[in-house]
């Protein structure tokens, strides 16, 4: 954590080059995505409809895309045991968290490669490393995001040294859909968006952008796994949506 005091600030300007650079942010009509768009304050295309990969592909033709942020995830999904999930719950969560990320990446990478220096940021979660009970499917999609981003970053490191691919570990954020009240450890979407943009340029392709979250990750890394499981089980049992009024 402390090495951050000695590193330079955000490298984002490096990725805003050429006459008309564009950024694409998925899930940008609300929450962290909306705040990212406001923070980037440049030409930004929102992409929120997972069924419309081909539409996004059409929309980026002729645009100088230099930044892509895969932000959308199934935060609003039910908190429940897997056997209570409907086929639609499962499909929505995996589509939004894994398929959409993969399909969109396939379509956007050629543009990012052509327009280097360029940047892809994939928004992840604490639950990728510490999967949450009652959020098994969502946790699995975030573990997918983490593995996918790392493999992708390594694939491109040598052939495309000016294409930066970065995973951001995000913890609780006070977005409308998460229903979390804002606090020091649950910051506003604007605070997280600024932290995400500031984190660009750090050496690692795995970053925890908001420092109190980074501190929490550091503490959790030193705790026995069983303690973390028990803590998460208690926390999310309270939030279960499949047994409301029957805890
Ligand atoms: N909030 C947290 O506490 C938290 C914690 C850790 C990680 N994260 C991660 O941060 C990212 C953003 O989270 P957030 O809380 O900002 O999310 P959010 O507020 O739920 O995101 C809202 C955006 O996602 C779009 N979206 C949601 N469901 C959709 C669907 N089924 N199809 C298409 N678009 C959909 C919304 O578009 P419409 O308005 O058009 O539906 C909106 O633009 C996610 O990857 C999430 O996993 C969040």
UniProtKB/TrEMBL annotation:
The keyword Electron transport does not apply. Keywords: NADP, Oxidoreductase. GO terms for molecular function: oxidoreductase activity. PROSITE patterns: ADH_SHORT. GO terms for cellular component: endoplasmic reticulum. Its main location: endoplasmic reticulum. It is found in: Endoplasmic reticulum. Pfam families: adh_short. InterPro entries: NAD(P)-bd_dom_sf (IPR036291), Sc_DH/Rdtase_CS (IPR020904), SDR_fam (IPR002347), VLCFA-Steroid_DH (IPR051019). PANTHER family: RH59310P. Belongs to the short-chain dehydrogenases/reductases (SDR) family. This is NAD(P)-binding protein. It comes from Jaapia argillacea MUCL 33604. The lineage of its organism: Eukaryota, Fungi, Dikarya, Basidiomycota, Agaricomycotina.
């Amino acid at each position: 954590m402390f090495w951050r005091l000695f590193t330079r600030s955000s490298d984002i300007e490096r990725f805003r080059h050429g006459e008309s650079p564009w950024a694409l942010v998925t899930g940008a009509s609300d929450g962290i995505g909306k705040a990212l768009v406001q923070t980037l304050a440049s030409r930004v295309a929102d992409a929120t409809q997972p069924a419309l990969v081909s539409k996004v592909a059409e929309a980026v033709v002729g645009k100088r895309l230099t930044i892509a942020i895969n932000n959308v995830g199934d935060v609003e999904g039910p908190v429940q045991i897997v056997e209570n999930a409907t086929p639609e719950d499962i499909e929505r969560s995996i589509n939004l968290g894994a398929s959409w990320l993969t399909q969109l990446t396939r379509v956007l990478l050629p543009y990012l490669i052509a327009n280097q220096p360029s940047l892809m940021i994939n928004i992840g979660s604490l639950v990728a490393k510490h999967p949450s009970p009652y959020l098994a499917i969502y946790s699995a999609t975030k573990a997918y995001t983490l593995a996918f981003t790392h493999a992708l970053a390594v694939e491109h490191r040598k052939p495309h040294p000016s294409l930066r691919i970065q995973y951001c570990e995000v913890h609780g954020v006070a977005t409308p859909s998460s229903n979390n009240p804002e606090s020091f450890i649950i910051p506003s979407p604007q605070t997280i968006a600024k932290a995400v943009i500031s984190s660009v340029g750090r050496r690692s392709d795995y970053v925890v952008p908001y420092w109190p979250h980074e501190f929490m990750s550091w503490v959790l890394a030193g705790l026995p796994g069983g303690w973390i499981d028990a803590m998460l089980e208690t926390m999310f049992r309270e939030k279960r949506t499949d047994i409301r009024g029957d805890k």
